[in-house]
Amino acid sequence: MAEIIRMPRMSDTMEEGVIVEWLKKVGDEVKPGDVLAEVETDKATMELENYHEGFLLHIGVKEGAVPVNGILAVIGDKGEDYKELLASEQANSSNSNNGESDDKSTETASSAETTVATASESIPIPSVSSEEVTPSSTSLSTDSRIKASPLAKAMAVESGVPLHQVKGTGENGRIVKKDIESFLKSGKTEKTDTPQIAEISIFAPNEPAVDTPISQMRKTIAKRLGESKFSSPHFYLTIEINMDRVVAARKQVNEMIESKVSFNDFVIKACAMALRAHPAVNSSWMGDKIRQHKQIHIGVAVAVDEGLLVPVINNTDYKTLIQLNNEVKQLAVKAKEKKLSLEEMQGNTFTVSNLGMFGIEEFTAIINPPDACILAVGAITQKPVVINNEIKIGNRMKVTLSCDHRVVDGATGAKFLQTLQKLMEEPVMMLV
Known about the structure:
9 helices, six-stranded mixed beta sheet
């Protein structure tokens, strides 16, 4: 018997998915566990798994956006007549949508007249890696205009593959995953140890502007951070930390172990310990109550091409610096390849955003819901400091805590930063 395949809800905030590429075509035999298509959600590009056995009889949407529960395809016996079933399902969906439209028509018309566009900000975030330049000398604008699936683009960046050299076999010449794999097998890519600066594109004086469609991820970023910025009363607290002992401790630790820990690992560990000492900061605004979390799950903001992702390190306070370093690296790679699961992106109780690797000394970040606070971490800079009435060169780092004033008061946030400062200036406390 024919089965209707619908767009599943692949994340808690997903309202629609975008079909990037069908991996099966009409007439193909499919089995449970087969991947039918790649779907871009508001958080990642995910695989649409099949749970039925039979043949792919019909594809409803070859490419583009489909609402959750929208009809994607039909699977059934070979040669089975599915058109009556499909027409019935489409009629039912149409009647349901019309009913909702009638109920909301007056409200929609009214709100359309009073809607005011507001500018939203985004959380400043660190890159997945230090790759601010492309792996090849290919112009950024050239590769960005080539039609390729998000997964193929991510693979190209990871592998140093210039997209303009890859022949696409997808619809209308679109580059897909298997094209990147074939290119890598051919051995044509040239990886260099020293990345080269991307060429600057030259545009004609009268060249028109280019409009880029908004991805599902970017839509969610705009919605969630807009709501956070304009509904949560933010205030900001900045403190400067003496990093001399962390610099020395990191050097000693990295001389003794094969895996190298980063300064950000020290920050994450210190935040986790400070949250344990100040549980009021490890809380969420729930509308009619404040929820104080007993577990500490820190989100680490990571940049990807289409926006940002915040993978979460669960039970952060129980993990060593080495464990944190390994987990952050693994999650960053998965974020870059869009392979993060829903479980790896939810449950955060606090967030860390680091732009120090870009030389940014100080910034403020927008709170990442449902957290009450987010810590913005700047660069470590060498500057003249007064020590025992003498001027010496010291390593200093500024951090700024963004707080939701509905949950955290100024004194509470200040005490948290004092504890964080003490831990960072006495890093041995994090090692015992």
